[in-house]
Amino acid sequence: MTTEPQARRTSGGPVLRDDVTEAIRVAFFEEMAEVGYGRLSLDAVAKRANAGKAAIYRRWPGGKDAMTVALLKDFAAEVLQVPDTGTLRGDVRQFLVNACATLEDPLTRNMLPDLMAEAGRNPALGDAFVGAFAMPRRDKAEQILHRAVERGDIPADTGLDVALELMTGPVYWHTVVIRSSTDDAYFDQLTNTILKALS
To answer: Is the pTM of this model over 0.85?
Structure first.
């Protein structure tokens, strides 16, 4: 049994097919991982998605920068999910596992360093990148720490800024910069180190 592709309508505009939107999204990330943000063109994304360039502008009228920010924001909301395990240890460890799983994805691993370098050259893109990707990740970590304070797991005067850096920095260094593998022992050791620093 087959189903018709779902579609949505822009405000006052044409119906947008979800399967075309998804094809463009996948093509965008694949193209960026392959050629980098600076060399990425919407023509190439459209060709890879087997779609017209107009289909991109109907969804992201602001062009490449707007498309990048919107897709990164959606990506971050999708992958940065951390369940409430009921314990600080469980929450921190699951946060680390989820973060590493995202960063170890080949597309993400190739895309993020280039995008961060481009953000340094393009202040507007840099601000958008922080708002769309970096800050949501910190927000998730902050939720974990606030729950821990409410449960009495850590003191209320714990320096949350430093704690947030402890939870977000090491996994990026480990998986993206030095490209080391992760396993249960790594997650246990890093979780123990973070908990000792917070105690």
So the answer is: no
